Amino acid sequence: GNPFISLSQVLRDPESLLLDTAKAHGAHKLTKDFKNYYGIKSANHGYTVVIKDNIVTPELPTTCASNTLKGFLPPQTSTVADLLRRGGQIMLAKTNMDEFGMGSHSINSAYGEVHNGTVDGPQGGTALSVGGSSGGSALAVAANLANVGIGTDTGGSIRLPAAYMSLVGFKPSYGMISRKGVVPYANSLDTVGLVAKSVQDVWLTYDILKKPDDNDPTCLSSSSRSRVHYATYARDAALQGNKILPVILNGPRFGPAAPTETPGRYHPRRHPLPTSKGVPKRIGVPLEYNIQEMHPLVRWSWMATLSHLEKAGCEIVPISLPSTKHALSSYYILAPAEASSNLAKYDGVRYGNSRHDHVDDDAANGTTLYSRFRGQNFGPEVQRRILLGTFSLSAGAMDNYFIQAQKIRRMVQQDFDSVFRMPNPLRDNTKVNKQGVDFIVVPTAPTPPPRLKYVRNATPLESYINDVFTVPASLAGLPAISVPGPRHPDYPWRPEVAVGMQLIGQYGDDFNVLKMANDEL
Ligand code: GLN
């Protein structure tokens, strides 16, 4: 059957979800341990998770919502699933998504579209887009089926669903959470992300997942993590007027001991998420984000957020990130290029259940076998991305597309580095930029959630525009969180007017991004 959550089924019998997976893991014992460990008193808090179907779990097939992988039960599990299980979190279900993560509305799926509201009706229904591509995980959280949704964010796939459904969606810095067992879409951009109803819930689960992993070479090692702590330390010391800065960022041997992000094991009762109150904060407002296409309600919410922050004692500073206007085009060259290479292995021979269906007379001719399988089983958006990516990597087009896009990506990174107070721990420059900002606050999406009936008929380009505010942080690998924005008092609250505000921090400043979002937004 369909491994994804069927909302009506779940609402009829919420217990059914817990049955196999959770009981097999000794749900009752784990629940108790987890609650004791985190000092959680209330029932049903912080320990049920749903997992996007591009992350491998031991019990259920992993299909990336693609016909090419129908019924595929991978031989190994993901580090994420492993850590969640060991952390006492109970995995309830795999969730629907855009095929291989390609999309912004969770409608490009072999299992049918995810939708928020009624699809049928006289005017074609009132269902709204849940955002994408982690829309299934986010909807499960919005519908109170799980406390935390695990997804992936390559160019906004956690933040956009969070914005569209008034949830909290967090994309950590690139490399903080292991990608072992996460099916790659665009390796240099892919991050595991989390969606929940509060920053605390996100933090509880992120704390379990942010671990080094030898099985993923792009997952930050312990020594790189202490280098990152050094950079946050340098920034904090500069803020406090401390002249003795740990300018050598090579490791704990040459300077004062790096402060640990969380002293010992985190325990919210004894160590509540430390407050960021009282620390001077400078908030950057990039002028290039104030685009003409921005919906008035989004602009209003952005301004309301900034004036609220100002009242809370933050300094609001206009900044310029000039490469922003090219970031989206760069992303839509780079992501399909990496994807076209990643997806080459789905040839109908190696993965999935349906692979034997196509072995017939043509089998002697491998090319026909592959192309028929791929033509029949990849959805139209995935095929479009493969064509785009293959083209931009081809000898004749490489210089004009792929290389240019890489250059823009580097400029986007340099733009961010030039405005942040904290030095980027991945670069050699260790100087604290005294005039710099600590965070950037911008909307998550240019509009509130669109109606599904419009989204279905949108051109690919119109769909790509939804990602205009999320891809810059992805290209630079920065931590970014989307939280529900203030609501205009003249508009009674309806799901149609949901707006998300995004807080972006310097690379490795994840903990402060979470603290700031928790305290001030
Ligand atoms: N909408 C973007 C895309 O289609 C982002 C997807 C993602 O982050 N996985 O590529």
Automatic annotation (TrEMBL):
Annotated localization: Mitochondrion
Region (Disordered): 258-279
Residue ranges constituting the Amidase domain according to the UniProt record: 27-223, 280-514
Catalytic residues (positions): 52, 133, 157
Broad EC category: ligase
Keyword Secreted in record: no
Catalytic activity: L-glutamyl-tRNA(Gln) + L-glutamine + ATP + H2O = L-glutaminyl-tRNA(Gln) + L-glutamate + ADP + phosphate + H(+)
Pfam families: Amidase (PF01425)
Keyword set includes Disulfide bond: no
Reported function: Allows the formation of correctly charged Gln-tRNA(Gln) through the transamidation of misacylated Glu-tRNA(Gln) in the mitochondria. The reaction takes place in the presence of glutamine and ATP through an activated gamma-phospho-Glu-tRNA(Gln).
Family listed: Belongs to the amidase family. GatA subfamily.
Record's subunit section: Subunit of the heterotrimeric GatCAB amidotransferase (AdT) complex, composed of A, B and C subunits.
Full protein name: Glutamyl-tRNA(Gln) amidotransferase subunit A, mitochondrial
Source organism per UniProt: Knufia peltigerae
Gene this protein is translated from: HER2
